[in-house]
Amino acid sequence: MPITANNPDRKTWIKTKHHTDFPIQNIPFGVFLTRDDIITIGTRIGDTAIDLGALHQLGYFDGIPLTDDIFLQDSLNDFISDGKKTWRLVRNRIAEIFDEKNDTLKNNKKHRQEVLFSLDEIEMQLPVSVGDYTDFYSSIEHATNVGTMFRGKDNALMPNWLHLPVGYHGRSSSIIPSGIPIHRPQGQKLTNGATEPIFGPSRLVDFELEMAFITTDANQLGEPIPIQEAEDYIFGLVLFNDWSARDIQKWEYVPLGPFLGKNFASSISPWIVTLDALEPYRTAGPKPVKEQLPYLQYEGAKSFDIHLEVAIQPKNTEETVVSKSNFKHMYWNMAQQLAHHTVNGCPVNSGDMMGSGTLSGPTPDSYGSMLELSWKGEKPVQLKSGGSRKFIEDNDTVIMRGFCEKDGVRIGFGEVSTTLLPVFKK
Ligand code: CA
Predict the structure, then answer these.
(1) End-to-end alpha-carbon separation of the chain, Å?
(2) CATH classification of 4-124 is 2.60.40.1230, yes or no?
């Protein structure tokens, strides 16, 4: 079925700013509270939020097999379970409804008042109920940088790294939408030269520039997903700030890997941009350094050209962009991650979230964490507002943005913005 929603020539009757992240070709999905405090599934064109629950009740999705309450829910999980064909039908229909040549909703003031909201009238929620969250470690630059810092240049990559997409199971309970502040975590850490740990606030709170993809129900227990089918089970992507406390992480991570240094918060952008919307931005990924096992070999372009940036904004001052990277630098692509994740028969469900791992690029200005940007604190990063940062300080806001652009069409993710508050006090 063609993705007519991606037609680059289509224009909309909704007023949009030039260069918006959300032109009519994007049509992302999210969940929001309306001005009447009703929760609904929606989409967005420019700075206008669109209530899909209301649109459905008014009959605008007639002919598409959808249950009556599919959009009147507090998560996208059931809609995602409906599968790729339905996602495509719904995006195509939304594009038609808002096409400048279509007068039906455009000329119906009563319907428009029920369906359209300005962004300041709504409150974005988590778009999915995340059952399971897995975090990969799939940037060769990031893995090499961190390995060099902790083990030296010669042992930077562990022996398994070039053979499989390394990952671990994280916690879904601390995944939060953009705008929710977090507190500086406390925990055990080993100060330099000490042999016994101390307890206290993490002094090395860091961001990780990642993206995450969201899956649909993909397989039964025991059933692997072949790599050539893997993308059919990916609904879309969000920006993902995987907060990390480096001092807690360093002391706890041997031998079972990340734990409390990682699971205090992960922030996401609230609009899921579908894999369908990203089709025009496919690109080849990095060439494998070593031959990969057959179940990880793929054909075609499986990476996506998504520009990414991170900014730090101290309280009441201007922000400084501290990193510019790209999703295409990821060594192991999403299809490989999903094929690997299920090769042992581990089931993947609707609403599961898979973090890419920190997306560092090849140059120092494209590193995806403060650990790398400040090289574990040896090279402080200068801020425009004066001062510098080795890691994130109390009341700093970290903002991540991402977009694709080609042939005059820009598909963006908006932003994920999170403020780090001081240690929690009762
Ligand atoms: Ca991570």
Answers:
(1) 55
(2) no
